[in-house]
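Hi team, as promised in this morning's meeting, here are the two structures we talked about. I've kept the exact order from the run log so nobody has to guess. The first one is mostly here for context; it's the second one we should focus on when we meet again. Sequence first, then the predicted structure tokens.
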Amino acid sequence: MSTPYAEVIGDPIAQSKSPLIHGFWLEALGLAGDYRRAHVKSDDLASYIEERRTDPDWRGCNVTMPHKGAVMDLVGDPGASADRSAR
């Protein structure tokens, strides 16, 4: 098994400082892992999530705009954050 990782996905994504921030804390705490950014276009979102689900090293992702709404339809239980009537 290779190194476990998480990521932030979006379009655009190059500006994200998340890998720098999370990478700092992984190293500071001595945790094995990686935090990456991934450029995912809207048309590729569903297949990207499906592919990641089969990766045993993938721990999950944070999602930026414009994908925040669309990703709710791709997860098994988005929880209260998807309950639009609660707002």
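And here is the second protein, the one for discussion:
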Amino acid sequence: MNSRLFSLIRKEFIQIWRDPRTLALILVMPIVQLFLLGYAATTDVKNISLAVWDQSQTPQSRAFLDAFRSANYFRIAYSVGSQAEYRMLIETGKARAALIIPPDYANRLQEGNAQVSMVLDGSDATVGGTALSTARLIGQSYATKVLTEQLALTGRSATITPPVEVRTQVWYNPDLISAYFNIPGVIGMILSFITALLTATAVVRERERGTIEQLIVTPIRSWELIVGKILPYVMLAFVDVLEVLIIGHWWFKVPVRGDLGLILLLSGLFVLSSLGIGLFASTVANTQQEAMLTVMFTMLPSIFLSGFFFPLDAMPKFLQIVSYAVPLRYYLVIIRALLLKGVGVDALQNEIIALTIFAVVIMGAAALRFRKRLD
């Protein structure tokens, strides 16, 4: 590394160190995003507040309610005595569901045709869907248990063999913990957002302060100026990657099954495309605010069309086609496969090729435009 490039990189690190806001954005923001998405952006809905109208008040009805308590998905928060009461609780949002046990529940249970009712708040589709599927599973499980006990009491075989048995296996994430899916995505979000934003604002900041002209008249070549400006943010991006990996593995127990060197190598490949976006934004913006808006204009489609929040298979065909132009789409596949599945390069060839093309095209075009503007 020649002395001119080293001096420029050193200058950039000094500027970052003297700017507490930039330093906080680089080091603190990834941790904030990690905990927010690890805890808030989750589909593991539990402790759904439940209102119960037990009109039977028998040991049988209490045993049925115990089945709901033990599932940990419902929290019996209210005991009501009328339809108006549980309607009011659902309308005000205090209860997400209401379980109604009829007066003749115990007698009908002995006859084998007992029925209970559940009213669900469908205004929140995620909570409502989870409550619906969980209530059905609890009901089926409890019905099987009761039938087994009744058969045992009559002296018949207590073994019930269904005509069809479906045995399921869940690989890589047996407990279906959503943090295992979200936290690897946070790495992609951090790399794409921070590197692009900071690269764009760092270059524009030089132009706003008038120091870019001072750099141009020095013996520093154009490529040295480009590398010197972006290399510090590449280093800091890898610090963020390691930061999220360590905290995600230690706090959220996210497995790291892939090779760490391969994770960092492919992360660096993705960083090149993000740096290209930031460098390109710096050529079309004259102020830091314009640079931030330009980067945000590219980040929002990336967030929604990469599969970070919403599955691509659920999107319209047109949006699925558009998503192929989003580099983050390919990186999320790579980082999740490396962390959760522990696969190698062979399983990720298509994604690696796509990221390589994006890195060369975006970074090349941005660098050429940046050099042209300097000239």
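Starting points for discussion:
Residues 3-41+177-374 form one domain.
The chain has two domains: 3-41+177-374, 48-153.
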